[in-house]
Write a structure and sequence with these properties.
With 367 residues, the protein is of the alpha+beta class. It contains seven helices and 13 strands. It is globular and about 75 Å long.
Length: 367
């Protein structure tokens, strides 16, 4: 019997080693650095925003702007690229410091959901999952081994800024981001023109949040090169897949310093839970925008970098780019108790709302 048990364990061990070697080989055989390419943007004058009747979050009215020539990432920053940064700088993201982040309901196992009583009022599909961060996008037990060419998510403004500075780059301004997204076209709705084109971007298709038909090929995040270039500049994922941070502060009366976690910054592009027509969440178009606080994180928050023409890479990371949030309190939630939120909302929520327990939410729905 011992011999059989030993043989079985040996087979399992060998099989595990083979799997690990296969993953390692695949990782090293693929040139993931190609996703770090920068594209030259000529700069110039353009009309920014939209005059659409359903414009929101400051999308309109249109106004004339001008940007200098610059460079911008062809793709959102990938898990592979962000991993290189973390390894080099021993960097710890805000999601890791807080020890949790928001994950969309469909990707959270039922046993984990049952352990989490908190929900966001009006958006119960966002689940605050313990130990969810860029390397474990859905929390404990998940990983990125097969998703190196996917966008890095659960990334805060502080994290994005730190990565770009390490590369000798920076975050794009909102004006630069939209100029690049428009691809040289004037006054168009999408990066490729005014006519909607299927399978050009990752979005939610179907009845939100219950059913995604996945006609675009994906339910959640998609690889950064899953779809064709979206415009004449050759850029990918400017609209859809993940929201992207910019260096522009949101137009509100802000008294907090720029490096304060409570400062709000503009996000652009929309994500995989947004829609074609705006019937739920945000309507995906070249002017789509929203904001969130600098320490926000969820599984649809990513970024790309920009570079001023004539600058060089430095590889240095200023110490003050790292936010140092305190650990959130762990508190038992009683029935009917309203829980004070310890972190900002995930992407696609307008305004701040307090989480509530499942029982309280259910009681309200019965009224």
């Amino acid at each position: 019997m011992d011999a059989i048990k030993y043989a079985f364990l040996t087979v399992v061990l060998v099989f595990t080693i083979i799997q690990l070697l296969a993953v390692y080989a695949a990782d090293n055989d693929t040139d993931y650095t190609k996703y770090e390419e920068m594209v030259d943007i000529p700069g110039g004058e353009f009309t920014m925003g939209t005059d659409a009747r359903n414009a929101k979050d400051g999308e309109g009215p249109t106004h004339d702007e001008k940007v200098k020539p610059f460079k911008i990432s062809k793709y959102p920053v990938t898990n592979y690229a962000f991993r290189e940064f973390v390894r080099a700088k021993k960097y710890k993201t805000d999601a890791e410091k807080y020890e949790w982040s928001f994950v969309f309901d469909d990707f959270v196992p039922e046993e984990i959901k049952n352990e989490i009583p908190e929900r966001i009022q009006g958006a119960p599909y966002w689940i605050p999952v313990k130990r969810a961060y860029w390397r474990q996008p859905e929390g404990k037990g998940s990983g990125i081994e097969s998703r190196m060419h996917y966008p890095a998510v659960h990334i805060s403004f502080q994290d994005a800024k730190a990565y770009c500075q390490w590369k000798g780059w920076r975050l794009p301004t909102e004006k630069e981001w939209e100029f690049a997204a428009r691809g040289g076209l004037k006054g168009k709705t999408y990066p490729w023109g005014d006519k909607w084109q299927k399978n050009r971007l990752n979005l939610w298709q179907g009845k939100f949040p219950k059913k995604n038909t996945k006609h675009d090929g994906y339910h959640g995040l998609a690889p950064v090169d899953a779809y064709p270039e979206q415009n004449e500049y050759g850029l990918h994922d400017m609209v859809g897949n993940t929201w992207e941070w910019t260096s522009t502060r949101f137009e509100t009366a802000q008294t907090s310093p720029a490096d304060d976690p409570n400062s709000t910054y503009v996000l652009r592009g929309g994500s995989y839970i947004d829609s074609k027509d705006g019937k739920f969440n945000h309507q995906l178009r070249v002017s789509t925008r929203m904001s969130n606080t600098a320490d926000a994180g969820s599984d649809n928050l990513g970024f790309r970098c920009a570079q001023s023409v004539g600058t060089k890479k430095t590889g240095k990371l200023p110490e003050d780019t790292r936010s140092k949030p305190s650990k959130p309190e762990v508190k038992e939630i009683k029935e009917g108790e309203t829980v004070k939120q310890k972190r900002p909302n995930p992407a696609d929520l307008r305004g701040k709302k307090k989480p509530t327990s499942n029982k309280k939410k259910e009681a309200k729905s019965e009224l």
